[in-house]
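thoughts on both lines:
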Amino acid sequence: MKKITLILILTLSLFSCSIGDDEPNVSYSPVGILDATLPEYFVIDQEYEIDITYDLGSDCNSFHNFEYSSRQDPEDNSVLEFYVNAIVSFDPSNTANCTDDGITETENWTEDFAINSDQYDTIRFNFLSGRNEDGTAEYLTIDVLVGEPEETEEPTE
C-alpha cells in the first residue's frame, strides 16, 4: 500500500509541474547612442559625470545600464579607448500600449569617471551608435585630452 501511495504521489507531482515556461522572458539589447556630454579635458584625480543620450527605441523598452570596456589603442600607446554601449530591457508582457515615437532619453553614467594616472594623453570614447548594412558596429567617437590645457601667454610688447 505504501508503494502504491508513493507511486501515486510521484506521478501526480510529475504531471502537476509544467515543463513549458509560460512566463515572458525579459531580453536585453544595445541601442544607439546619439550624443554624449564630455569635458574638453580630464584633470587627473578629478571625477566627472558623463551624460549620454540614447535612442530608447520604444516605450516598451526601459534603460538597464551602460556596459563598457577599455583598452590601450594598439596603434598609439598614449591613447586609452573606452567602448560604451547603452543597454535596454524589453519585457514582452508589457507590450499592450507600445509606441515607437523616436523616444530618446539621457542618463548620467552612474559610475563617476576619474582618470588616476597621467599614463595616457588622450581618452577616446567610442559610443556604439548603431550598425551598418553589413552588421558592422558604428561608433560616435569623442577624444578628451588628459591634463589641463596650457594657458596661452599674452604677447609682450
Notes: The chain has a mean pLDDT of 79. The first strand starts at residue 27 and ends at 31. The two ends are 113 Å apart (CA to CA). The chain is about 10% helix and 45% strand.
